[in-house]
Structures are given as structure tokens and as C-alpha cells.
Amino acid sequence: MKKMMLSVAVATASVVISQNALAETWRMALGDAQGGTQYAMGQKFAELINEKTDGQVRVDLFPNGQLGDEQSTVNDAGMGLLDLSVLAINNITPFSPTVGVLTLPYVITGSEDAKVLTQGEIGEQLKENTIRDAGVRILSWAYSGCRVLSNSRKPVASPADLRGLTIRVPRNEIMIASYQEWGVNPLPMAWSETFTALQQGVVDGQDNPYITINAMRFYEVQDYITDICYVFSLEPLIMSESKFQSLSSDMQEIVLEAGREATAYSYDYLLDSEESIKQALVEEHGMQIIQPVDDEREWIERASSIWPRFYDSIGGEERLQEALSVLGRDLN
Ligand code: MLT
Questions:
Q1: Quick check: CB of 31 below 6 Å from ligand 1?
Q2: Which atom of ligand 1 is nearest to the CA of 88?
Q3: What is the pTM of this model?
Q4: pLDDT tens digits, residue range 253-277?
Q5: Which of 106, 190, 244, 247 meets the CB 3.0–4.6 Å disulfide criterion with 69?
Q6: Taking 50 as the threshold, does the pLDDT of residue 1 lie above it?
Q7: Does ligand 1 lie within 6 Å of residue 88's CB atom?
Q8: pLDDT confidence of residue 8
């Protein structure tokens, strides 16, 4: 009898051990602080993975650049040192230049354009290119809204008003060139250093969506916003391709499905929250929003004049033509 009880105990222990062996934790880097689109989408993905694997896989979120600045997380994921990262598309462009079609100024003019491009055939092609170029797979898209310009010094209505201001930009050639067309030389800087640089006055301004300005508490160090909406901020969730390939095909399907569901969730999150966040920036945090109505054409025409310079890197003029025609517009 004693012997039988012992063997039952051994059998039970081995079940527990093998269940534990199945349990895994994946690490997800996030460039932004908690409270924005990146975190909302990342958390949704983590919940979905947990549910769909009956708790066998847990995803831990590390916001605020704790696992490195956004561009370095692409390298880390590509080398298989990091499982997941949520970051702005402009920080993937240096590793996979064809995604630059999504950051050319004034191509995506709002959330509907963003959805059509990312969830259609062009989005699928870009996913393939990112796997090929950077060893990372885009699983999901977070939609953060249009990038607007903020600064601490003065109301800016026209490109001429930028003179004398030092503006931080991501290390992204397209964004650098846009500011140069507006008449200033911006300062390229990692996202993780931006708040401190604004706080210490190393730079006077930067651009990001309303939701991000709020999540990062930029209202503490910035007073003015110019609603230029020149690039739409897409923030993909990427997975290390070597990690993805190491998963069983059932698990891969779970990951892809969770990614699609998190994308849909993120789109609704933007539509539900952007307007109230914009209002809070003004009413609670005292920011002033300038609508550059009279100067709108100048912002658009000058920045869009850079498009031809990037045709080669995005895979040819026809790539832009294709994107614009999906959006019901024409290159000329
Ligand atoms: C950047 O400005 O580098 C990024 O867009 C920031 C972000 O990921 O929100």
C-alpha cells in the first residue's frame, strides 16, 4: 500500500514538473510609458496569449524603454535576444527601408488611411520585407494617431516660425528631410532620451501624437502644439522571427490570431480615446493647440517635395503610387 502511494505521489509530481516545463514567459519591450496606445495594445496581446494558451504562456511588459531604446530592440529581437517589442514604425525604417512608405509625410492622413494600408495587401508585403530585412515579424499594429509638433518656446503656425527652435526627431532620414524642407536642421535622438532633453532644454520641441504626448507627460515640459499631422504614428508589435519559428504550428496560429485581435482592439482604442486626451491636454494641462489653417498648404507642399528622394529606399516610385491608389489618390 505504502509503495502504491509513493508511486502515485511520484506520478503526480512528474505531471506538475512537465506542466511547469511547458509554462513560458515572454518579454515585451515598449518604448513608451504606460497609459498610451503601445501599452494598451501590448497588454491586450498579453491577455489574449494567456487566455488562448490556458495560462501556459505569460507575456511580461517592460514599458518606458526599460529594455533599451526602440531601435536597439529591433536589433535585439532580430538576433533572438528579445521576444517582443512595441515601437514606432519610424524606428523600424532604418532596418527595413521599404516600411518608409508608411512614414512619408502626408501619405497617411488619418486613422482610416492607416487601417486600409496596414490591414491590406501593402501591410502584408511590408511584413514579409521586415522579416527578410530585420529578422522580426510584425504581429499587430497599434494606431496612435497623427504626429503633431510640440514645443516649449512659442506658438508655431508656419514653417518660418520654426526658425531658432531645436527640434528632436527620431533617427529617421525621412523625418529629418521633412524638417530640413521646413527650414530647420532637427536633432536626431533616441526616443528614450527625449523627455530629459526636453526637460533640460537641450531641445525645444519634438513631434508625436496626442496620445503619446499625454502618456509621456510631455505637457510637463511643453506648452504649444501645432496640429500639422504630417505622419501617422503606427506602432507595430514585432516578434523575433527566430522565436516565432521555434514555436509549434498551433502556437504560431495562436500568436497570429492574438496579433490580429490586438490590432482591432488598438484601432478602437484610438477612436475612443484621442479626442478626450486632446481635450485634457488643453483643459487639464494648459497646452495651447495651434491649427495652422492658413499655412497648411505650405507645411504639406514643402514636406511632400521630399518623396522622390526616397523612391529607391521604399522600393520604387510605384510603391508610393500603389499606396496612394489604395487610398483613392494619385501621385500627381
Ligand atoms: C519616436 O518619436 O521615436 C517614436 O515615435 C516614439 C514612440 O514610439 O512613441
A1: yes
A2: 8
A3: 0.91
A4: 999 999 999 999 999 999 999 999 9
A5: 190
A6: no
A7: yes
A8: 43
Instruction: Give CA–CA dist 28/118, Å, rounded.
Output: 21
**Domain range enclosing 243:** 8-96+110-143+234-272
Cα 187 from chain centre? 20
What's the gap in Å between 5 CA and the centre of ligand 1?
A: 59
Distance 229 CA to ligand 1 centre (A): 15
Amino acid at 37: T
Q: Are residues 68 and 49 in the same domain?
A: yes
Segment 232-246, tens digit of pLDDT: 999 999 999 999 999
For ligand 1, the distance from its centroid to the CA atom of residue 100, given in whole angstroms, is: 15
State the Cα–Cα distance between residues 109 and 322, nearest whole angstrom: 16
Tell whether 168 and 257 lie within a shared domain.
no
Task: List CB contacts of 139: < 8 A, sequence separation 6 or more.
Answer: 45, 84, 236, 237, 238, 239, 255, 256, 258, 259, 262
CA 220 – CA 223 distance, rounded (Å): 8
Domain count for the chain? 2
Tell me, yes or no, whether 170 and 313 share the same domain: yes
* CATH number of the domain bearing residue 187: 3.40.190.170
Cβ of residue 274 lying under 6 Å from some atom of ligand 1: no
